[in-house]
Amino acid sequence: MSASALSPPEPATKGSTIREFLLWYDRRYGHAETARLADRLSPEAAVLVDPKQPALGILGASWYPTSVTHPMLTRVAERIGNEGRNFAIESCREVVPRMIGGVYRALFRSVTSPELYARHIGRLWRRLHTTGDRAMVIRAPGEALSVVESWPAHHPLSCWLAIYTMTNVFEAMGYQRWSVERLTCIGHGAARCETLLRYGT
Fold first, then answer.
1. Cβ neighbourhood burial of 44 (10 Å; 0-12, 13-18, 19+)
2. What is the rounded distance in angstroms from the CA atom of residue 29 to the CA atom of residue 16?
3. To the nearest whole number, what is the mean pLDDT of the chain?
4. Are 57 and 68 in contact (CB under 8 A)?
């Protein structure tokens, strides 16, 4: 048996979320800039996208490996700066409410409170990612600790996207005032990503 046959499958992300963020990027920066996100893909990864199509031809029902997503995330982060944090803030503000009210509407019906979100966040995460263990603890009224570990697909920008997806879910639950503090990050040498979210109405 070859060594490749023994290798674990490459971590992957569900196409539905990738597609929504690429469509937002296209509206914000234009299709030519979106098409350039595919420039750094390896030949093997490039066959999975089509720069001529909206959202690079990403299909919502398919899964895409890090060999596709990481080069694109890196290009966005380099273009925006600061690990792409402002991209995460701006795009999540539009994309997350649309996904909650659209393709994932039924899924998010079960998370109508911080406590329920904390209970189900691991299951929600696994609907979008093949790796990473996501958990949340409500430490006190108005304070939640989010943790992601065992996440080989981690990328600094994907970390910020996870954080601001969370804040927009809390906004959808009616908590319009919030602040986040990223305590640790895998991208900075930590074993896991920890974020403290403070929220209120």
1. exposed
2. 20
3. 93
4. no
Query: CA 118 to CA 27: how far, in whole Å?
Result: 33
CA 198/CA 200 separation, integer angstroms:
7
CB 131 within 8 A of CB 187: no
Nearest to 184 by CA among 150, 155, 148: 148
Q: What is the pTM of this model?
A: 0.92
pLDDT digits (tens, 9 = 90+) for 48-88: 999 999 999 999 999 999 999 999 999 999 999 999 999 99
Which domains are seen in the chain, by residue range?
A: 11-89 (no CATH), 111-200 (3.90.1520.10)
By the 8 A CB rule, do 128 and 96 touch?
no
